[in-house]
Amino acid sequence: MVGALLDVVFQESIVLIPQIGKIVSIGPDGEGRISPLEDSPSMVIREKQTSTYEALLLLIGNTLYEVKSKPDGSVLLNETDSSAHIQTDTHMDMRFGFEHISASIASPERVHAHILRVPDPSEPRTFCLLFDSYNPKPTKARLLFLSASAEATDNPLRANLEVWTRTGCPPIDVQGGVIAVVHKNSIWVGPKESGVLIHLEGLLEEHESAEAIALDEEGKTLACALLSRRGEGMRILRVDIQPWLKGYPPRDPKRAVLAVAELNPRLPSGVPEPDLKRDVRPYRISPQLDRLVAKASGIREGRIFEYFMVANLEWKQIRRGGD
Amino acid sequence: MMDIFFPEQGLCVTMRGSGELSVWELTNGTLRATYQVPRVITIRVHRWGNTNAEELWFLSNETNLSLSRAHIEGFLSLATKKEIVFSGEARIVPAQDGLRILWGGRQRDKGDHHVPLSDPYTGRLERVVAIEGSNGLQAVLVLRSWYRQCLMLYERDEPPVPFPEVGANGVEINGVEIARREQDVLVSIIEKREVRLFILPGWKSLLKFKPEPPSIICAAFPVPAGAWREMQKDGIGVILARSEKKEGKPRAYFALRIVDSDERTVLEKQIGSVDASLDPQPYARVSPDRRFLVVESTYFRQVFQLPSE
């Protein structure tokens, strides 16, 4: 599936967008540069290293490559010493591993993995989504919570949840001991040690689906980009998720919305401006909750342009009377 | 498939096969929270000292067999445990690709039972109901599934016995209810079109009830003699449901009928109705305190309050 989106990662001011066949890097000026990517990776690893830098690793064949952006917009693929593997045996058990974690689960078909690793002090800090192909639409996948602690050597699996989510650039985030996942077009969160997710019920309108999510560093608030299926455009909200994490969701979930963001896009040169209501599909919000990466499209002189854009998020607090 | 549990008085938990677990407040019928949990085999534990609530345990079969107990106060937590301990010495432990029922506690004896996860004759382990009596673990009911569902009864020093004359429609765990007394346990079991009352130990049959069409059995529970006024003998409380069209719109009606072991109707009362069609077999249970009826159908979900006398 040439062109299928694998992920979006933030490396300081550069945004890397690996796809099957190419890697797009977008600089602070909004301009994108394309580097070819031969072969399709079976595993994509996004590793948060600092609040502004995410490492990107791709398993191609038996080799794990680290993808690094250079200031001039080009990318480097470095072979790493790290180990990773993914294979299905004759009993249809899937064995996969990354670094010191290796697990085996019954899995009839799935052969792709997306791993999110966070530098948390407590386990689990590795989260693995298993699926059969990189799909831009929600599809059935397994979300594994994995622990690398010494006592977990025999069984690193802390939880195994069935989710319906986008497998190309999966909308999953972990921060401050909290995991957030888009499941069935809606948002679910949970303390990561619990291995359980709670639904942020009543937050979205019925015609909206959650497309991109990001937690703040403490895991107390969540930024989300919601897209209307009725063509009413996109809403970007900042939500206080603490009532849900305590197990007592608010009676009026809409009052948990703390702020809304406006988009300030930096378009690449030579492309038509998109209709922000109709022609923008959000994919990721940066860990600092200050940027959004979206796919946009527009028509100029009868020609359709499709491109990735980075937009700054300008947050506006919601003032409520009587608060 | 959806299972209904009552882990605390006033609260209800519904759980779908996909791992979606919802917590409901019975007094106002509102949804408190919905969780996504791992796929598990559920174990419903009826404790001797707590007749109005049941414990909810999970058996997980991911890489290793493990037991956990669900606590629903606050954020749902699944506390990993080595075993389910009962008064006296009995325990249920995960072991050997299944569960072991250790009737005499940790000192294993010949009377212990092994409940395998899969069995070539009775199929896959699906659900477990454990019943604690005044002297410890009294009975374990195990629902298995192969080409049809089968309910097995495990009692101390007895070989496992299948639910007698099981029909082709099989049994659902929501249709298995108990009422305990000092010495014995009453069990009501719904098979698609009829409900039967048994007494444990053994599968001694006390009563069989089949409603007149078009009513269907939605839920049922055993009623021990003396529990209701004028009721001299053990019986069954049956929630009957029927669907009618009123001004061209479908409407589902629910009624409670209590029938004793002489097949005499002791009480019949209307419970309520819903503006919706009725499934042939809605998911429903009556709370252990017999105050609420929870019904979930394709077209509606409703909590009804039951009459007290």
Rg of chain B, alpha carbons: 19 Å
Largest sheet of chain A: 8 strands, mixed
Strand content of chain A: over 45%
How would you characterize the largest beta sheet of chain B? Answer: 9 strands, mixed
Helix content of chain B: under 10%
Structural class estimated from helices and strands of chain B: mainly beta
Number of helices, counting only DSSP H or I runs of 4 residues or more of chain A: 1
User: How many H/I helices of chain B?
Assistant: 0
N to C succession of SSEs of chain B: EEEEEEEEEEEEEEEEEEEEEEEEEEEE
Describe the structure.
The complex is a heterodimer of chains A (323) and B (309). Chain A has 323 residues and is mostly beta strands. Chain A has two domains: 1-170, no CATH class; 171-323, no CATH class. Chain A is built from one helix and 26 strands. An eight-stranded mixed β-sheet of chain A has the order 8-7-6-5-12-13-14-15, with no helix packed on it. In chain A, strands 20-21-22-23-26-25-24 form a seven-stranded antiparallel β-sheet, with no helix packed on it. The longest helix of chain A has 4 residues, at 242-245. In chain B, strands 5, 6, 7, 8, 13, 14, 15, 16 and 17 form a nine-stranded mixed β-sheet that branches. Chain B has a domain at 1-162. In chain B, β14 (123-133) and β15 form a beta hairpin. Chain B is mainly beta and 309 residues long. The A-B interface holds A 103-105, 154-155, 157, 159-163, 183, 188, 190-191, 194-199, 201, 244-249 and B 18-19, 31-39, 62-64, 72-78. β19 (197-199) of chain A pairs antiparallel with β4 of chain B.
Secondary structure blueprint with pairings:
The complex is a heterodimer of chains A (323) and B (309).
Chain A: E1 9-11, E2 14-19, E3 22-26, E4 32-36, E5 43-48, E6 54-60, E7 63-69, E8 75-79, E9 84-88, E10 93-98, E11 101-106, E12 112-117, E13 126-131, E14 138-146, E15 157-166, E16 172-175, E17 178-183, E18 186-191, E19 197-199, E20 208-215, E21 221-228, E22 234-240, H1 242-245, E23 257-266, E24 280-285, E25 291-300, E26 303-317
Parallel strand pairs in A: 5-12
Antiparallel strand pairs in A: 1-2, 2-3, 3-4, 5-6, 6-7, 7-8, 9-10, 10-11, 12-13, 13-14, 14-15, 16-17, 17-18, 18-19, 20-21, 21-22, 22-23, 23-26, 24-25, 25-26
Chain B: E1 2-8, E2 11-16, E3 20-25, E4 30-36, E5 41-46, E6 55-62, E7 64-71, E8 77-81, E9 84-85, E10 91-94, E11 98-102, E12 113-116, E13 118-119, E14 123-133, E15 136-145, E16 149-154, E17 161-162, E18 171-180, E19 185-191, E20 194-200, E21 204-209, E22 216-223, E23 235-246, E24 249-260, E25 265-274, E26 283-286, E27 292-296, E28 301-305
Parallel strand pairs in B: 5-14
Antiparallel strand pairs in B: 1-2, 2-3, 3-4, 5-6, 6-7, 7-8, 9-10, 10-11, 11-12, 13-14, 14-15, 15-16, 16-17, 18-19, 19-20, 20-21, 22-23, 23-24, 24-25, 26-27, 27-28
